[in-house]
């Protein structure tokens, strides 16, 4: 499949046209950002790791009935995906207190939640991606109630599936950011990626952080822990 013009370049990925108007190419970069791009850097090999991990997770979820935009992995850092009309919301599923949830609630980091918490965030870099509720979403016309119901149902199912699957590999799924869109038929699909950039992964025994928090918090060994998650999840070095 030939690759055409760039559609969009974000902090971690580039989207490009193909000859099929319903299919685009998603190219994963090694660039790393944090705090709404105030901190920038590079994590060697991240593009390959995140592309392959996302391929693994999308394939796993598809086998369990979750519709996704994933079509195929074209190379180490490139995947072919369905073109979506993205819903301008990020969905965060939380299983353990960490990050902004600890700051907003005063609860100690690492405290397990009695049941998963779902949060909505408005995708607006210029506003800092603020947290919103359903009334805000309706007020701004960001998504219909039917779409929100579909997204919430999918997000909770995805969280249940991946939390259980990762625990078998010695990894706690602390929280995860998910993005959704609609295809040409209006069907809601999981989009974006699932990786150490979009999830908090902790070692289930030591509680060692194994994700982008190592970059955010200057903990060191960023590449090593990305590689360790890759090894545990995929079974390959």
Automatic annotation (TrEMBL):
<comment type="similarity">
    <text>Belongs to the SAICAR synthetase family.</text>
</comment>
<protein>
    <recommendedName>
        <fullName>Phosphoribosylaminoimidazole-succinocarboxamide synthase</fullName>
        <ecNumber>6.3.2.6</ecNumber>
    </recommendedName>
</protein>
<keyword id="KW-0067">ATP-binding</keyword>
<keyword id="KW-0658">Purine biosynthesis</keyword>
<feature type="domain" description="SAICAR synthetase/ADE2 N-terminal">
    <location>
        <begin position="6"/>
        <end position="232"/>
    </location>
</feature>
<dbReference type="GO" id="GO:0009236">
    <property type="term" value="P:cobalamin biosynthetic process"/>
</dbReference>
<dbReference type="GO" id="GO:0005524">
    <property type="term" value="F:ATP binding"/>
</dbReference>
<dbReference type="GO" id="GO:0004639">
    <property type="term" value="F:phosphoribosylaminoimidazolesuccinocarboxamide synthase activity"/>
</dbReference>
<dbReference type="Pfam" id="PF01259">
    <property type="entry name" value="SAICAR_synt"/>
</dbReference>
<comment type="pathway">
    <text>Purine metabolism; IMP biosynthesis via de novo pathway; 5-amino-1-(5-phospho-D-ribosyl)imidazole-4-carboxamide from 5-amino-1-(5-phospho-D-ribosyl)imidazole-4-carboxylate: step 1/2.</text>
</comment>
<dbReference type="InterPro" id="IPR018236">
    <property type="entry name" value="SAICAR_synthetase_CS"/>
</dbReference>
<dbReference type="InterPro" id="IPR028923">
    <property type="entry name" value="SAICAR_synt/ADE2_N"/>
</dbReference>
<dbReference type="InterPro" id="IPR033934">
    <property type="entry name" value="SAICAR_synt_PurC"/>
</dbReference>
<dbReference type="GO" id="GO:0006189">
    <property type="term" value="P:'de novo' IMP biosynthetic process"/>
</dbReference>
<keyword id="KW-0547">Nucleotide-binding</keyword>
<dbReference type="InterPro" id="IPR001636">
    <property type="entry name" value="SAICAR_synth"/>
</dbReference>
<keyword id="KW-0436">Ligase</keyword>
<dbReference type="InterPro" id="IPR050089">
    <property type="entry name" value="SAICAR_synthetase"/>
</dbReference>
């Amino acid at each position: 499949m030939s690759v055409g013009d760039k559609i969009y370049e974000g902090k971690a990925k580039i989207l490009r046209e193909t000859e099929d108007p319903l299919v685009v190419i998603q190219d994963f970069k090694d660039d790393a950002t944090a705090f709404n791009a105030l901190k920038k850097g590079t994590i060697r090999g991240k593009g390959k790791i995140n592309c392959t991990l996302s391929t693994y997770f999308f394939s796993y979820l598809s086998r369990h009935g979750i519709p996704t935009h994933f079509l195929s992995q074209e190379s180490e850092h490139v995947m072919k995906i369905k073109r979506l009309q993205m819903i301008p919301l990020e969905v965060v599923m939380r299983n353990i207190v960490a990050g902004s949830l600890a700051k907003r609630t005063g609860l100690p980091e690492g405290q397990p939640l009695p049941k998963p918490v779902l949060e909505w965030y408005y995708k607006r870099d210029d506003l800092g991606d603020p947290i919103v509720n359903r009334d805000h979403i309706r007020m701004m016309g960001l998504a219909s109630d039917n779409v929100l119901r579909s997204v919430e149902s999918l997000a909770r199912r995805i969280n249940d599936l991946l939390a259980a699957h990762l625990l078998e590999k010695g990894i706690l799924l602390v929280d995860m950011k998910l993005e959704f869109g609609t295809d040409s038929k209006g069907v809601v699909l999981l989009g974006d990626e699932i990786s150490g950039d979009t999830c908090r992964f902790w070692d289930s025994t030591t509680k060692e952080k194994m994700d982008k928090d190592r970059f955010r918090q200057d903990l060191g060994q960023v590449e090593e822990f990305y590689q360790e998650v890759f090894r545990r999840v995929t079974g390959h070095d």
